[in-house]
Amino acid sequence: MHKPAILGGEPVSKKKIRFAKIFVGDEERKAIEEILREGSLVSGAYLEKFEKEFARFIGAKHAIAVSNGTDALFLSYLALDLTFGSRVLTTPFTFVATASSIIHAGSIPLFADVLEDGNLDPASVEKMFSREKIDAITVVHMYGKPVEMDEIRRIAREKGALVIEDAAHAHGAEYKGTKVGLLGDIAAFSLYPTKIIAAGGWGGVIVTNDDEVAEKLTLLRAHGELRHKLGEAGAYEYERLGYNMRMSHIEAAVAYYQLKRINTYIEKRRKIAKMLNELLGDLPGIRVPEEPNHLKHVYYIYSILIDEKVIGWSRDEFVKALNAEGVEARRGYHKPLHKQELFLNINDPRVNHFAKIHKYPEYAKMHLPNAERISQKTVWLPMHPFLTEEEVESIATAVRKLIEWKSTHA
Questions:
Q1: Which terminus of the chain has fewer Cβ atoms in its 10 Å neighbourhood, N or C?
Q2: What whole-number distance in Å separates Cα of residue 75 and Cα of residue 82?
Q3: Per-residue pLDDT averaged across 238-242, rounded?
Q4: Nearest one of 117, 90, 95, 142 to 373, comparing CA atoms
Q5: pTM higher than 0.85 for the full model?
Q6: Which residue from 88, 263, 101 is spatially nearest to 190, judged by alpha carbons?
Q7: 126 and 207 co-located in one domain
Q8: For the segment 270-323, what is each residue's pLDDT rounded down to a tens digit?
Q9: Contact, 203 vs 54, CB < 8 A?
Q10: Chain-wide mean pLDDT for the chain?
Q11: CA dist., res. 281 & res. 277, Å (int)
């Protein structure tokens, strides 16, 4: 087997295989040019069109477009009255915004452990309810694979808790035939450029079937101004404290045309994931993602778990070696939130101004073994709809090359 590029050998791919790729088509470009000519940068017809089509795609009654996925979560908590005094249980194996948005809303985040796939473990969730007062559960459909929602919803129903879906990874994913976004009380999606679909910058969207919650959100995202409820008759009239967390017209236009291609994007991701599973599934020390029959995984991220003792590389060395082979790999969420400096020092007002009025748990004392373990074993490989078959084969070749080299040069 050829020497790894990181040790002086030739790389598998001389052209870098990108981790993610953003595509903006002619329809988006024409819409942007039209908006710039008209000067309607802040609001316009595309916002309403996008909201209507996104709601239809999910099967929800309402879709409310906002500035980004983090704000979508934050506003969701406010709309559900999960603010001061509330306690929200979520996963520590996620991007910080899942938990920081809970703090910004005035609530206290608590953590349960996860399963091997990175999704919340219902058994750990139930155990936390037996020990703590909890008002809501925020699930993250990790990498685009839906959480086991039957158990989560049963626990929430029995305990009188709300369910929030952090669906930043999971546009179009399904659980037992129902789309993510309809599996809880409210759902927040991100339209960051590398997500399943993008807006023309940041962008987020909230979906709900509750009329009252939807009305709250339209006011919360726009200064609480009644213009957004009554039209011009409500201009400069303010009903509640609100924020400036709106989506721009350009972002809405890009998102609208991206949405038209979402099913194609998802099917391409699924096809690529199937190819990678077939190419990598027999390798020792590699665990590829699984998709039970009752789920539809959309593979926002293609994540593998490695056994360092079997493959002969530490996770961080393996990621560096893959990059040297021309494969843009990443180590992903390499430190769970309860081990991050932010949460270790959460009661210091210099770190978190809410500590002046709240006492947070001692996160340093939390032991969440699965989250801690998989954060040290996770490797993210390139995944986007524009990977060629040759690039997919090169990704697998690079992984195989590194493992086989170590097996003969231990």
A1: C
A2: 10
A3: 94
A4: 117
A5: yes
A6: 101
A7: yes
A8: 999 999 999 999 999 999 999 999 999 999 999 999 999 999 999 999 999 999
A9: no
A10: 96
A11: 5
CATH number of the domain at 291, please.
Answer: 3.90.1150.10
* Residue 167 CB coordination number (10 Å): 32
Helix (H) or strand (E) holding 310: helix 308-311
Based on the fold, state whether residues 279 and 383 are members of the same structural domain. yes
Distance CA 181, CA 206 (A): 9
Give Dmax (Cα) for the chain: 76
Hey, is 50 helix, strand or coil? helix
Q: To which H or E segment does residue 58 belong?
A: helix 45-58
Distance CA 217, CA 214 (A): 5
Looking at the predicted structure, is the pLDDT value of residue 1 above 80? no
The residue among 220, 246, 261 that closes a domain is: 261
Q: How many CB atoms lie within 10 A of CB 215?
A: 15
User: Count of domains in the chain?
Assistant: 2
Three-state secondary-structure class, residue 42: coil
Digit-coded pLDDT (tens) for 77-127: 999 999 998 999 999 999 999 999 999 999 999 999 999 999 999 999 999
Give the other-Cβ count within 10 Å of 53's Cβ: 16
Tokens read off for 342: 């932010």
Residues 6+ apart with CB under 8 A from 232: none
